[in-house]
Amino acid sequence: MKLTLSFISLSLTISSLIIPSHASSSSLPSNSFLGIAPQDEDYFKGEIIKCKNGSKTFTKTQLNDDFCDCSDGTDEPGTSACPQGKFYCRNAGHSSSLLFSSRVNDGICDCCDGSDEYDGKVKCPNTCWEAGKVARDKLKKKIEMYHKGVALRREENKQAKQAIARDREELLALENEKDVLENLVKQLEGQIQKLEQEEHLEKEEKMKEASNEKVEKEKSETEEKVDSQKEPLKTSDEEKMGLSWKSPSNQNEKDEFQSTEGLSREELGRLVASRWTGKKTEDQVEEIDTAKRDYVGNREKEESAHDEHSINNALQFNENTQKHHEKGRNDAGDEESVADDVGSSSTHYNIRLEDHENSSDIATPSHQSWLVKIQETAQNILQSVNFYPTPVPNLDANQVRNEYNNYTTRLHDIESRISSLTEKVKYDFGIDNEFYLFYDRCFESKQDKYVYKVCPFKHAIQEEGRSETRLGNWEKFGSSYRMMLFSNGDGCWNGPDRSLEVKLRCGLKTELTSVDEPSRCEYVALMYTPALCLEEKLKELKQKLESMNREQPWSHDEL
Amino acid sequence: MKMKPFKIFLIFLLFLASQTVHSWKKDEFRNCNQTPFCKRARSRKPGACTLIAHDVSISDGDLTAQLIPKAPHDQDGDQIKPLTLSLSVYQDGIMRLKIDEDPSLDPPKKRFQVPDVIIPEFEAKKLWLQSASKEKIDGNDGGFSSVVYLSDGYEAVLRHDPFEIYVREKAGNRRVVSLNSHGLFDFEQLRVKKEDEDWEERFRGHTDTRPYGPQSISFDVSFYGSDFVYGIPEHATSFALKPTRGPGVDESEPYRLFNLDVFEYVHDSPFGIYGSIPFMVSHGKSGKSSGFFWLNAAEMQIDVLANGWDAEDGLLMPTLQSRIDTFWMSEAGIVDTFFFVGPGPKDVVRQYTSVTGLPSMPQLFAIAYHQCRWNYRDEEDVENVDSKFDEHDIPYDVLWLDIEHTDGKRYFTWDKLLFPHPDEMQKKLATKGRHMVTIVDPHIKRDESFQLHKDATQRGYYVKDATGKDYDGWCWPGSSSYPDMLNPEIRSWWGGKFSYENYIGSTPSLYIWNDMNEPSVFNGPEVTMPRDALHLGGVEHRELHNAYGYYFHMATSDGLVKRGDGKDRPFVLSRAFFAGSQRYGAVWTGDNTADWDQLRVSVPMILTLGLTGMSFSGADVGGFFGNPEPELLVRWYQLGAYYPFFRGHAHHDTKRREPWLFGERNTELMRDAIRVRYTLLPYFYSLFREANVTGVPVVRPLWMEFPSDEATFSNDEAFMVGNSLLVQGIFSERAKHASVYLPGKELWYDFRTGSAYKGGKIHKLEVSEESIPAFQRAGTILPRKDRFRRSSTQMVHDPYTLVIALNSSQAAEGELYLDDGKSFDFMHGAYIHRRFVFSNGQLTSSNMASPSLGRSGFSSDCIIERIILLEHTPGPKSALVEPGNKYAEIELGPLRLGGHGAAAVTIRKPGVRVAEDWTIKIL
Are A314 and A369 within one domain? Predict the structure, then answer.
């Protein structure tokens, strides 16, 4: 076999004096246009051809002669001679592709039409038909999915739009209310001052002798108490910090030499191993976990307590508003009962709005009437107070104080709600605000023993049992809204602070599907959502399918 | 066992503290003063040795004598037993000196002689001495020496009183190497413990029972005509060994040879790290080299003595020659030493490797680029990394899996969740011609359900502790035991574990990495095994410590040979090593750190390894610990491309650092660097063959090629790859310039542009981010392959480019070696070895393969596609190719495809086959 081959090449070389460009190598393409895209063929039709980067020219015979002439590989599209070369596979029946020249005749079938392997060392069957069908089917499915996805996205965008409108409206209303309340509070403040001055004058004489020293004493006592309470709290905080992150000073390093001697052999083994691994020894892990668990536990308790509180308040608020609406309606025009109502309104309006999550119902039209109502009531109080000449009866003074307290509280609540809404609308929610509905939502994925929780615009955490690790705080969207970035998470031993990249893909449901840690403490997650089902992409896919159908000769049969 | 919470907390704090500042735990390791034998030996004064040679005679072809003290009793009045001395002579200028206790006098224990290091062929080279001549020493009252033949031009001399051994040139009686010229020789003979004696040694909570008491040996060795000494790896320090004692030495600590797993070792320290080769080479202005090797595997400490260290002792030494004195100390064993006369540096290396063996010939894939990380986590990760290389058109040959791939650090197993289909995974890589390496360490998990452990326990194959129980240490798997690799039966058993049947999930494209084989024991003294642990035949660990990793490497390598039915060359990377490890595979410089100093120190470390036989070595590209800045990483790739062993590796706490993760430009730069290696693979492979035949290392110091050029003697920032390429590393950030010394009288050509530079001077060069300076030496011919593939496997049929760098007489020569890249057939002549000579305007290719073996079995269809002539006057239009009487065109072309730089005279498509004889004449 080898003999005959070399005989052929020998006879070829003998036949001409100057070595013909194809004789020295057994692997020249039979078609000198091999590896050139059809739309590019015209470029190569002349006798003298330019390298595309203009570095040089080459002759027709030097095209695909398995010797690199152009630094950009223009002259060798069909061979492996130029490192910069690109080989075009037609792949009829499938989609065409461009290979690195390093793949040509390397013994591995890269093009499904097998055109990249022509030196006879390996036989590549044409698999474009099958592969193309599979690819087209896959693409069709994807297009179907995108169709649905695009519709879903549209629907969600609509909802987002509404939500934005609602939030803006609420914000406006709240700001309005805030103005009114501020005004009221100021007035009440004035009233109270006045009342107090009068009370003060009244009491002053009685008080004069009795209490001066006593008050001083009590005051200093309370101050001391507060201080002594603060002190231990502070140290325990520091301890906690020391335990979890900050390493102690060098002094402790010295201690190690003494202390390692006291270790058991196993402890020593674990300690030394931990230098390389950065892992704490098991016992230590447990210890830290407990510490952390306690800490987290506390935090959870606090949080849940807080949550309860705010939920209660929310309920109360709803109830109250409800009641008030009814009352407002019932009592309209009934002056007396309004005046009566003033007293009870103090309980009605003892409301906290803080952390009130789903409060879009405040911004309902009825709210307006409620606001009007407040104004009216307040007006009444002010007026009623004004009617009485000095001295003011105690009852009225108390009422005024109560009202004052209620309104300030209410004002605070509104202010904090305003600031959280202002905070919210400041975020970038995407091209069509398609991520607006992600705000206040968290997405979970369970993997082995971990539960990952991604809360866009807020943070991402990893939960293991009762302990949680913060993978990052919201940073921003990346790569044109195809990625969510969370950074500055909990620190990593000997490594970076944890961070998370959530790659976003088009899907019919918003769900977190996988979380991975390719580098230590650098997490990568995948999330599907209709928000990513873009119409342009759908168009692109359709075009791709069309071109695939066009390029494959059997498309008629298939249809 | 419960830890008290407070203690746990303390440990945790300490553990945190330990991360922050200096990580090298200097205090955890013994310095000389904490090592009684070292401290004792160092306190001895020159002339303290009173031994004289007695009963000097020739017996069994050796010169033998008894060493007896002048005063036959020691201070306590005990009789001092004589020692036996034998001096043998071997072909090629090698003298061997052995001194041991006299076995006929019933010493308490036979002292350990390291077996299986000296190759069997060496014994056959022994010259049987017939006679010794007696020579009277001038000026010494009646003193005599016995002189024997060593080789043409050299003699070995034994001076009787006081005893001294040296090698000298016959002509002019110039000394080469001598032993005990300063009378520092001391040999602590084994003896019975006296009642009041305490032989135990304690260090940081560990107790060494030392049941046999003191048994150390120390002596001085002098190198004559010497300006520098080199060798005795492994230390992270300069190539030319700095003095450790005497005038001008501040912190006096000897070079320590004690294989240790040192966490975050520091650069520029005489401290012992992973491997030990007690072989020293000297070199001097005369251009001559000599060598000294002490075959001893116990802890060794070596002082290089600064000039004038002995000033106050006033001993008379020959003063005409420049000289370097050294002082060698070992805790146990015997004196079994080898003197190498040189005279050239390559002669010394050849002589040394004739004793300890030549470097094995690696497979082609093994000298290409390796991609490693602790850890590629699972099959998906592997597949992803693999495909990214293709996506970025970056070639690589081997993907590595570190300890996490196993089921709970039980070697030979796979984590079933992460690697459910190991064989499929390997096969997938193999379809692209790529290989995989998995880690197999010597610590075996003490787990009753682990078959390997059960097997080893039942057979009694573990190293025993001082009480005779299986030694139980702590390593990655937790409680672990260590097979006794000193025992050939156990090595063979171990080797069998690599068969495809035993190593489930292994395939023919899988090779092995031996880590932690110092051995590393996390809870042992100095992070290793206690010295009183016991090996085969009651040998104490102290006696063979430095060779444990060597035997482990050997067992693994032999196992792979067995696996492949003796047809597949093994590839085993080891961290620990000893003299002779070159026969079993590659080594790397262990857990280095991602900083510029460690990049710099990698060069002297690799040069030292090469000089002492370990030709196949490299440092982790990028630095194991820490995150390299992209610039450092790029520079490391640019340098690493010239390491004999080229692998990127990283600690699991570091960020991912595969070449495509630092932006397009850096990807391009790293791709370029890796491609330099691939384009030079034919040259590297030829150099590995040269090492395999002559012992001359692939990467060598400048003075090995330019022995008389003094400016090169302490240069360890530049190195030679073979005889043709000089490479200078860039070891600083944002370097704009580099000073490069180019030795010799001929020109050097920039490896990338072809620009010519004069030899014999320092050039201040501009440096770009694109590459580190590299030059082809005028008068050489470099074979390249300029097509890049996925891996070296696909390059096999690709055509060659020859780069001819003409010297001042318009001549050049070079070699090319190739074989099947895989099997042992080359040992039976199945290879192609060509010699290319260019002179008188004509290039000739001729056969260098030995004619007796002929060209049996291996042929290649590869042709030469391009011949580039650097510094050839432009003008010629064609060349005549014979046989065939054909013409090839000549044009001006680039030195590097796709690169820039001056155009060079290029013969286009001469079309000749590498396997054949031909000539090409420039017309």
Answer: yes
Is B472 part of any domain? Answer: no
Q: How far apart are CA A273 and CA B183, in angstroms?
A: 45
Cβ-Cβ contacts under 8 Å, A71 against chain B: 894, 897-900
How many domains does chain B contain in total? 2
**SS in 3 state form for A468-497?**
EEEEEEEEEEECCCCEEEEEECCCCCCCCC
In a domain, B337, yes or no: yes
Each residue's pLDDT tens digit, B415-455: 999 999 999 999 999 999 999 999 999 999 999 999 999 99
Is A55 part of any domain?
A: yes
- Residue pLDDT, tens place only, A425-474: 888 898 888 898 888 889 999 888 899 999 999 999 999 888 889 999 99
Residues of B in contact with A280 (CB under 8 A): 12, 15
Q: Which of A355, A349, A353, A357 is nearest to A306 (CA)?
A: A355
Contacts of B396 in chain A (CB under 8 A): none
User: What pLDDT is recorded for position A24?
Assistant: 40
| Closest by Cβ to B9, choosing from A121, A287, A495 | A287
Do the domain assignments include residue B514?
A: no
* Nearest residue to B419 (alpha-carbon basis) of B406, B409, B410, B434: B406
Amino acid at residue number A506? C
CATH number at residue B919: 2.60.40.1180
Examine residue A556 and state whether it is found in any structural domain, yes or no.
Answer: no
Residues A358 and A314 in one domain: yes
The CA distance from A361 to A367, in Å, is: 9
Q: Would you call A383 helix, strand, or coil by DSSP? A: helix
Closest to B262 measured CA to CA, from B22, B579, B556: B22
Question: Which of A102, A448, A497 to mutate: most B Cβ within 10 Å?
Answer: A102
Q: Are B883 and B855 in contact (CB under 8 A)?
A: no
- A51 inside 8 A of chain B by CB: no
- ipTM of the predicted structure? 0.89
Q: Which residues of B are catalytically annotated?
A: 515, 518, 591
The confidence band for B808, taking pLDDT boundaries of 50, 70 and 90, is very high
A190 in the same domain as A323: yes
Comparing CB atoms, the residue among A72, A107, A284 nearest residue B12 is A284
| CB B473, CB B524: distance < 8 Å | yes
User: Where is the domain boundary, B332, B356, B380?
Assistant: B356
Residue B632 lies in a domain: no
Domain end, chosen from B321, B356, B391, is at: B356
CB contact under 8 A, A266 and B527: no
Give yes or no for a contact between A529 and A512, defined as CB atoms under 8 angstroms apart: no
pLDDT, tens only, A35-44: 999 999 999 9
Determine the average pLDDT of the residues in A166-171. Answer: 88
A178/A109 same-domain check:
no
Across the interface, which of A14, A102, A288 has its CB nearest the CB of B788?
Answer: A102
Give pLDDT, residue A555. Answer: 43
Shared domain check, A476 and A418: no
A267–B3 CB contact, under 8 Å: yes
Domain that residue A88 falls in:
22-122
Q: Which two tokens stand for residue B400?
A: 């590595």
Give the residue numbers spanning the domain of B847.
799-923
Asked if A318 and A416 sit in the same domain, the reply is yes
A218 located within any domain = no
Tell whether A73 is within 8 A of chain B (Cβ): yes
Q: How far apart are the first and last CA of chain A?
A: 47
Q: Which residues of chain B neighbour A242 with C-beta distances below 8 Å?
A: 13
The nearest CA of chain A is from the CA of B196 a distance in Å of: 27
Do A304 and A422 share a structural domain? yes
Percent of residues, chain B, with pLDDT higher than 90: 88
C-beta atoms of A106 and B794 within 8 A:
yes
Within this chain, do residues A458 and A388 fall inside the same structural domain, yes or no?
no
In a domain, A502, yes or no: yes
Count of domains observed in chain A: 3
Q: Are strands A48-50 and B300-305 parallel, antiparallel or unpaired?
A: unpaired
Q: Over chain A, what is the mean pLDDT? A: 73
Please name the amino acid found at residue A325: H
Inter-chain residue contact B1 with A266, CB threshold 8 Å: yes
